[in-house]
Amino acid sequence: MEEREISQAVITRLPRYFRYLGLLKADGVERISSRELSRIMNVTASQIRQDFNNFGGFGQQGYGYNVEYLYEEIGKILGLDKQHHLIVLGAGNLGSALIKYMMFKNRGFLFEGAFDTDPSLQGKEIGGIRVYPPEELENFVREHEIDIAVLTIPKEEAQGAADRLVKTGIKAIWNFAHVDLKVPPQVQVESVHLQDSLLKLSYNIHRYEREN
User: What are the backbone dihedrals phi and psi of residue 182, each rounded to the nearest 5 degrees, phi first?
Assistant: First the structure.
């Protein structure tokens, strides 16, 4: 399958397609049309077809989509046919919760270690994952072929941590620190700003109240 340059808007929708197709597959649905999928997902059938055409289409006119095949193909596009090895920097409440979330493991995202500056946490295990002191970071990343680093540390520490990770050859950073990181283009960064999401929700509440 020849891949074109895909817009970020399409990439943002792919996990949602994957999630809904997984639910349909679990319910025993074998085939679905773009119109039926549009009703479930509240996305136009035209948009669904345009999105899928970026990757070759997947369906046949008058035949619809094979749910299991489409689910597997989108999973491959998302890289879920491979395993990824992760570490967490910051073994507090959020870092611990992410380590313990079993769905990551089921999708092939394997936590290998955690790092924290708190001596009382070092040497302990969280969900079977050992907590190490920051001094061991570089060697650990290289020895365990870590792909992704998860940052759940204070924003003041995040850029310095990112700089260290870049030097190890890390491929990607999942950033929960409230700061925009500066990294080379070969390092992929996905920033999760929880406050931004909450403020967006607040805006939508007040907009609805004004309009009604």
Answer: -110, 115
